[in-house]
Amino acid sequence: MSTTIKCPSCGTEFEPNESIREEIQKEVNRKAEDWKRKKEKEIEEALRKNISSDFETKLRLLEQNNKDNEEKLKEARQKELEFLQKMQELKTKEEEIEITVQKKLQAGREKLSEDLRKIEEQKIAAKETEYNLRIKELEKKNDDTIKLLEEAKRKNEQGSMQLQGEVQELALEEMLRSTFPFDIISEVGKGVRGADCIQTVRNNFGQECGKIIYESKRTTSFSNDWIEKLKTDMRSNGAEIAVIVSKAMPRDMDCFGIKDGVWICSFGEVKALAAVLRDGVIRVFNAAKNQENKGDKMHLLYDYLTSSEFAEQWKAIREGFMSMKMSIQKERDTMERLWKAREKQLEKVLLNAAHVRGSIEGIAGMNSVDLNLLEEGNEDDMAH
Prior knowledge:
Blueprint: E1 5-6, E2 13-14, H1 18-143, H2 145-154, H3 156-179, E3 184-187, E4 197-202, E5 208-217, H4 225-236, E6 241-246, E7 257-259, E8 262-265, H5 267-289, H6 297-305, H7 308-364, H8 376-383
């Protein structure tokens, strides 16, 4: 192997000695070291650039993530704020709804209380009239029990309404007869539609002064057709005044009054109205009578008072009065017996209730259970 070295300048070849080799070796080593440092520097620079680039990239990514997170946090806070605002609005609306509901409930309670008060007042106002009508119903039921049972099987509702009408009709006739014993109270035939009875008004001398025709109704609604029918019956029977006694009043009337020439009233008002109308009939009759036969009145009156006709009529009146008095006394005795029997039954119930109450209070203690059948004061009075 040749170890000669050729000079690059002159092209002379020569064989290097040991010193040259050492110099060359040093030069080579120096260049190798320079190249190595250069490469290490380049590598270090490349690494520095790569690291710097990665750091900047990561920094940008972190900044972008931080920015995104801030945007998301801002959006989340905005949404939370909107949610809290909506919650506050819902709470406010709930409070407003609660206030509205409470107001409606209060108004409903007040209206219910007012309606109950009005109903109670109506019940109290009708109590006396309904009591009398119920007494007549019981009497009528006792007299027609078998007949009512047969009719109830066929036509329950119609039979019930008819019974109530008959009861009020009978009560009306009895009231007129007992209040005006000198008048003639005649019942209209059952087959005749319209009027129920006619009151022939007579004065203290027994003279017929005029007629008042009555129609009794006990239905839940008033019909204007009743007025024209009764006016037709009034003309056909020669009556001067027509009266409808009705449980239901016309819509434009809340108490008795006159409508289209016909008087309308309730059963509780008919007694007073009949007295006023009867007095008017007598006054009209007397006014007309005073204009005729003035000279013969005293003689006619004397002849009438001394006649057997007057004596027989007075005797009949007295007998009728005594009969009515005895009948009333008999009815009173019967009712008192019934009341006494019911009072005994009530006392028995209260006594047994007191025993039960004492047993329960002995077990459960005083005031644990309210077993009073009546108010405290009323129950003590009943016990005594």
